[in-house]
Design brief:
single chain, mainly alpha, Na+/H+ antiporter like fold, 19 helices, Cation/H_exchanger_TM, ion transport, transport
Length: 408
C-alpha cells in the first residue's frame, strides 16, 4: 500500500509541478501532508511504525543519495572561489544555530544537555528546496543566491559528525567508544575520497572510455561502490557519500556534469519517499502531546535561532540589511533534518520519541512557513517592477517639460 500511495502522490506532484513553480504550493509540503493524511493518525491507509525496517533503510538510502549529490555540487574549486560569505554562514552560523537551538530545547522543553545538543545538530542544516523562488530569481543578488546554495550544499555534511557524536553520547556513556567512533568516521572519509579518485583515474586512462549512453551511470556506479564498501567495512556511510560527491566534483568535472540531472532525479525520489514516510509517522496525537512549550520551541528555532546566528556571523560582511534578513529567514529545516530525525527515532535512545517530536513539529512549521514565503521575499528584490502605462506616459511628459524648462 505504501508503494501505491507514493506512486499516486508522485503522479499528482508531477501534474501540479508547473503550478507549484508559480505559486506558494510546495511539492515537499504535498508529500508531507499526504503522509500525514494517509497515515495511522487520520485515514490509516499507510500503516507504518518507527521500528519498521523500511523506515531505517529508506532513511539510510535517502540520506546517502542526498549527501552524495550535495557533495557533487561543491567541489574544492567551488569552495575556494566562493568561500568568503558561505564561510561565515558555515563557520559561525552553523555552530551558533546549533547552540541557540540547544539552549531552547534545554530550558524550554527540559531535555538533558546531550539530547538538547542532538536536537540542535539535527535542526542546524538548511535546505534550499523551500527557498527555490529566492535562489532561482535572477534579480536576487548573485552573491546571495551563491551563499544560500553553497551553505545548504555543505552544511548537511558538516552537521553530520555532530549528530553522530551526540547520538552516540545519548545512547549511554557505557556504549560510547570514541576510538571506534573516530575510526568509523575516518574510514568513511577515506572510502569517500579513495574510491571515486581511483575510478575517475581509470576512466582517464587510454584503456577505458565511457560511451555517451553510459556516462550518467559512471557516477552512479561510483556511488553504489562507495555504499557497498562502506557497509562492508563499517565505515560511516554518510561521510563517505559526502566526501565521494566532493571528490567527483573536484577530479571528474565531466562525470559531475553528465550525472547532474540524473542524480538530482534519483535524490529527489528518495527525498519525496522519505517525506511521505515522515508525514505518516506524524499523528494528531504527536502534534498535541508536545504541549505549548514544544510549539514555542519550534517557533523559536525558526524565528530566533537562525536569525541571531546569521546576525552575529555577518557583522561587517558588506551584506545589506535586506540581504541579511533574507539569509536569516531562509534557513529552512529540510530533508537532512527529516532523515536525522528518523535515524534518532530508530536508535533506541531513551529520549528518542521526545527528540523526534520536537524535530517533527519544527520541520512541519518550517515547510509550511518557508515554502509559502519564498516567492514573497524574492519579489522584494524585484526592483524593476512593471508600472502602469499611464504612469509611463506621465513620466515621459514630465521629462519633456523638464528639458524644455532647462532650455528656457
Amino acid at each position: 500500500m505504501l508503494l501505491t500511495a507514493f506512486a499516486c502522490v508522485l503522479l499528482l506532484a508531477v501534474l501540479l509541478s508547473s503550478l507549484a513553480h508559480r505559486t506558494i504550493l510546495s511539492t515537499a509540503a504535498l508529500f508531507l501532508v499526504a503522509g500525514f493524511v494517509l497515515g495511522d493518525g487520520v485515514l490509516g491507509v499507510v500503516s507504518i511504525t518507527p521500528t519498521d525496517p523500511l523506515v531505517s533503510t529508506l532513511a539510510e538510502l535517502a540520506l546517502f543519495a542526498v549527501l552524495f549529490t550535495d557533495g557533487m555540487r561543491v567541489g574544492w574549486h567551488d569552495l575556494r572561489s566562493a568561500w568568503r560569505l558561505p564561510g561565515r554562514a558555515l563557520g559561525w552560523g552553523l555552530p551558533l544555530t546549533l547552540a541557540v537551538t540547544a539552549l531552547g530545547a534545554h530550558y524550554l522543553v527540559g531535555l538533558g544537555w546531550i539530547e538538547s545538543l542532538l536536537v540542535g545538530a539535527i535542526l542546524a542544516p538548511t535546505d534550499p528546496v523551500f527557498a527555490a523562488a529566492l535562489v532561482g530569481n535572477e534579480r536576487v543578488p548573485p552573491r546571495l543566491r551563491q551563499l544560500l546554495n553553497v551553505e545548504s550544499g555543505v552544511n548537511d555534511g558538516l552537521a553530520l559528525p555532530f549528530v553522530i557524536l551526540f547520538l552516540a553520547m545519548a545512547a549511554g556513556s557505557g556504549d560510547l567508544h570514541l576510538g571506534e567512533l573516530g575510526l568509523e568516521l575516518a574510514l568513511g572519509v577515506l572510502i569517500g575520497v579513495a574510491i571515486p579518485w581511483l575510478a575517475i583515474k581509470l576512466v582517464q586512462t587510454r584503456w577505458f572510455a565511457a560511451s555517451t549512453l553510459y556516462e550518467p551511470l559512471n557516477a552512479l556506479a561510483i556511488g553504489l561502490l562507495v555504499l557497498a564498501i562502506a557497509k562492508a567495512t563499517h565505515g560511516n556511510l554518510f561521510l563517505a557519500a559526502f566526501c565521494a560527491g566532493i571528490t567527483v566534483a573536484t577530479f571528474g568535472q565531466h562525470q559531475r556534469e553528465s550525472f547532474e540531472h540524473f542524480g538530482e532525479l534519483i535524490a529527489e525520489l528518495f527525498k519525496l519517499a522519505a517525506l511521505l514516510v515522515f508525514g505518516a509517522l506524524i499523528t494528531p496525537a504527536l502534534l498535541g502531546s508536545v504541549g505549548w512549550t514544544g510549539w514555542l520551541f519550534a517557533i523559536g528555532a525558526l524565528v530566533l535561532a537562525r536569525p541571531i546566528a546569521i546576525w552575529v556571523s555577518f557583522l561587517r560582511s558588506g551584506l545589506s540589511m535586506r540581504e541579511q534578513a533574507a539569509v536569516a529567514w531562509f534557513g529552512p529545516k529540510g530533508f537532512a533534518s527529516v532523515v536525522y530525525g528518523l535515524l534518532v527515532l530508530g536508535s533506541g535512545i531513551a529520549a528518542a520519541q521526545q527528540v523526534f517530536q520536537l524535530v517533527a513539529i519544527t520541520i512541519v512549521a518550517s515547510i509550511l512557513l518557508h515554502s509559502s514565503t519564498d516567492i514573497v521575499v524574492a519579489r522584494g528584490f524585484d526592483d524593476e517592477r512593471e508600472v502602469p502605462a499611464w504612469y509611463g506616459r506621465l513620466r515621459g511628459r514630465s521629462n519633456v517639460s523638464d528639458r524644455t524648462a532647462g532650455r528656457g
